[in-house]
Specification:
By secondary structure, this protein is of the alpha/beta class. The protein contains 15 helices and 11 strands. Helix content is 36%, strand content 14%. The longest helix has 23 residues, at 192-214.
Length: 421
C-alpha cells in the first residue's frame, strides 16, 4: 500500500522574521466542519504547523463565532468578529449545505481526499446528517477523524447539550473557584473549548504517528467535560485519597502553603506575592523594614499564618504594598530574589517588551491590519512563513470547487442558486 508523504520534521533551515506558520505538517490535508471554539481551535493548531486546513461553513451565516464579539470598532459584522478571526487564521474556507443530497456528495468527496477530519457537531446533529464514524469510515480507511462533543459519544449524557459554564461545572472545576462563603465561580472567559481542542490536536498527532506504521486511520472521541475533569481533578483526586481532603474554595489565597501565597492590592493594581522559602520571607521582611507584627509568636508558623490569619496579615501587607506601583515592586523583588508578579491586563501584556513579538499583525478586508496572538513556541532553525487571515465566508469556493473538484464556473453558479454552497 502506498502512503502519502506528510512532513513531520523540519524541511527548511532559514529564518524569516517573526511570523508564525511552520512547515512541520506540510502536505497534511485537514477537513474541518465545526463551530464555536473546540474544533476551530484544533484546526488552528494544525494550520499553524503547516497543515492545509479546509474549513466548511454553513451557507449564509457561517461559523457561529462570526456573531460573537469583540467586534472591531464595536460594529457587529460577520467579518469582524475577533474570536472568529483568531480561531481561523491560516485556513481556507468554503460554504456547503450538508442538508442537501448534492452537498453531502461533495462532502464525501472532500472526506475521501483528506488525511484528517475534525468536527464538533452535537451527536444528534451528527446522527441526523449521517456524519458518524460508522457512516463515513468506508469512504476513507486511512483518515484520522476527531469528534468533539460536550459529553462524548457514549454514556448516559451523550445527547445532552452544554455551554462552557455547564461543562466547567460538570467537570468539577467550579467547586474550587471563588471564596468559601459564596457560591462557586467559573472561568472569567470560556476555556473548555480550548482545552478540548488542544486534546484533539495532540490525539490527532498521536494517531498520525500510529498511521505512519499501520497505514490505518482512527476515530478519536473527545468529550469536552473529560478534558477538564482529567486536568483539574487529577490532583484533587490524589488529595482526597492521600490527605482525606476535598476541594475548597480559597479565594485569592492558596491554603496549606506558607504565607504569602496570594494576590494583594498595591498602588496601581494587584500583584502576586509568594515566599515559599524561608530566605525569601526574610528578604521580604527586610524590604518592609522588619515590621513588629511579623515578630508575634502566632506568626512563627507561616502555614498556620496562612490558614488562620491570612486576612489580618493581608491588611498589614497591603498597607506597605500600597506605597508602590506594580513595576516598582517587581524591580524590588528581582533585586531581593522574591517571587512576585504583577497582575497584568491585556494592554500591559501586549506591550511588554518580552511578549510583544508573539502578537502578529495580519491584514484583512473588513478590518485592515490587526494584531493577533501567534504560536506560543519558536522552532529554532526552521523557516516560518507569514500568516494568512481567516477566510471570508465562502472565500475559497471557486478555488476548491472548480480548481480541486473540477466543477465548471457555470456549475458553480448553479450550486449557488440551488443554495448548496
Amino acid at each position: 500500500m502506498a502512503y502519502k508523504t506528510v512532513y513531520l520534521y523540519p524541511t527548511y533551515l532559514n529564518i524569516k522574521g517573526n511570523d508564525v506558520t511552520y512547515p512541520l505538517l506540510k502536505g497534511l490535508q485537514v477537513l474541518e466542519f465545526g463551530e464555536s471554539i473546540s474544533a476551530p481551535y484544533c484546526g488552528k493548531l494544525l494550520a499553524d504547523m503547516g497543515a492545509n486546513v479546509l474549513k466548511i461553513e454553513r451557507i449564509s451565516s457561517g461559523d457561529s463565532t462570526r456573531e460573537y464579539g469583540p467586534f472591531l470598532n464595536d460594529d457587529p459584522h460577520l467579518e469582524r468578529s475577533g474570536l472568529y478571526l483568531y480561531l481561523n487564521s491560516n485556513k481556507k474556507g468554503i460554504t456547503l449545505n450538508l442538508e442537501t443530497p448534492t452537498g453531502m456528495e461533495i462532502f464525501h468527496e472532500l472526506f475521501t481526499e483528506s488525511d484528517v477530519y475534525i468536527q464538533n457537531l452535537h451527536p444528534l446533529e451528527m446522527d441526523h446528517l449521517g456524519l458518524a464514524w460508522e457512516n463515513l469510515k468506508h469512504l476513507n480507511q486511512e483518515i484520522v477523524m476527531a469528534s468533539i462533543t460536550p459529553f462524548g459519544l457514549t454514556g448516559p449524557y451523550r445527547n445532552w447539550k452544554a455551554y462552557d459554564i455547564n461543562l466547567a461545572a460538570a467537570g468539577g472545576i467550579c467547586q474550587g473557584l471563588g471564596v468559601a462563603t459564596k457560591e462557586p465561580l467559573t472561568f472569567g472567559t470560556p476555556e473548555v473549548g480550548y482545552f478540548a481542542g488542544a486534546s484533539a490536536c495532540s490525539s490527532i498527532m498521536g494517531a498520525m504517528l500510529s498511521k505512519s506504521v499501520s497505514g490505518l486511520g482512527q476515530h478519536i472521541d473527545i468529550a469536552e467535560v473529560e478534558s477538564m475533569a482529567g486536568i483539574y481533578n487529577g490532583p484533587e483526586a490524589l488529595m482526597a485519597v492521600y490527605q482525606w481532603r476535598v476541594t475548597r474554595r480559597t479565594g485569592h489565597h492558596a491554603l496549606d502553603f506558607p504565607y504569602p501565597n496570594c494576590i494583594l492590592r498595591c498602588k496601581d493594581g494587584f500583584v502576586f506575592v509568594g515566599a515559599p522559602e524561608g530566605r525569601q520571607w526574610r528578604n521580604l521582611l527586610d524590604l518592609m523594614g522588619n515590621p513588629d507584627w511579623a515578630k508575634e509568636d502566632r506568626f512563627r508558623n507561616r502555614t498556620s499564618m496562612n490558614n488562620e490569619y491570612a486576612e489580618e496579615v493581608d491588611s498589614y501587607m497591603e498597607q506597605w504594598l500600597s506605597n508602590y506601583t506594580k513595576n516598582e515592586l517587581l524591580d524590588m523583588a528581582l533585586d531581593a530574589q522574591i517571587p512576585l508578579a504583577p497582575v497584568r491586563g491585556f494592554d500591559e501584556v501586549r506591550n511588554d517588551p518580552s511578549l510583544s513579538s508573539q502578537f502578529i499583525p495580519i491584514s484583512r478586508d473588513y478590518t485592515g491590519e490587526v494584531s493577533y496572538p501567534g504560536t506560543p513556541y519558536n522552532l529554532v532553525g526552521l523557516e516560518h512563513s507569514s500568516p494568512c487571515p481567516a477566510p471570508t465566508l465562502g472565500q475559497h469556493n471557486m478555488e476548491i470547487y472548480c480548481g480541486q473538484l473540477g466543477y465548471t464556473p457555470e456549475e458553480l453558479t448553479k450550486l449557488y442558486q440551488a443554495e448548496i454552497i
